[in-house]
Every structure is written in structure tokens, then in C-alpha cells.
Amino acid sequence: TTLWHKLLEDTTGICLLSGTGSGKTEAVLIPSLVLDKRLIMIYPTKSLVDDQIERAKSYIRRLLMHKIHAK
Question: pLDDT of 39-71, one tens digit each?
Fold first, then answer.
């Protein structure tokens, strides 16, 4: 079962553990944005939170542009 399939289910929570640089952020962020699912991500430092916010903004902009051009 892929993470996409898990997110399509009525899941109350998913805990994803993997090594640094393995793509965890994209693995949950992109499907959550596309599927309009609430996502709560926990980070150990403020600097990491700031970095992830900028990455999320970038993905959101790309998704919105894709939706605009698809119409």
C-alpha cells in the first residue's frame, strides 16, 4: 500500500519515519495538498520549520498554477 492509498482512506493519523533526505516531506505534503487533506508535521527546530514552510509555499504555488492552467 502506498502513502497515497493510506491518505485516501479515512485515516486518523500516519507516522512516517525515515532517514534524512529520503523524501518524507514530499511523500506526505504533495499527496495531502492534492487530496486536500489536513497535515500536521512536527519538527524539532524553528529553522527547520521555516525551511519547510518555504518548501510548502513553493509546492502550493506550483499546484495552484497547475490547477489554473488545467481549466
Answer: 888 888 998 889 888 888 998 898 888 888 887
> What share of the chain has pLDDT > 70, as a percent?
96
Q: Which helix (H) or strand (E) holds 4?
A: helix 3-8
- CA dist 51 and 36 (Å) reads 22
Name the CA dihedral angle for 6, 8, 13, 15, rounded to a multiple of 10 degrees.
Answer: 30
Sign, CA torsion 7/13/18/21: positive
**H or E stretch covering 43:** none
d(CA 67, CA 69) in angstroms, rounded, equals: 6
- The cell numbers describing 65, all together, are 498554477
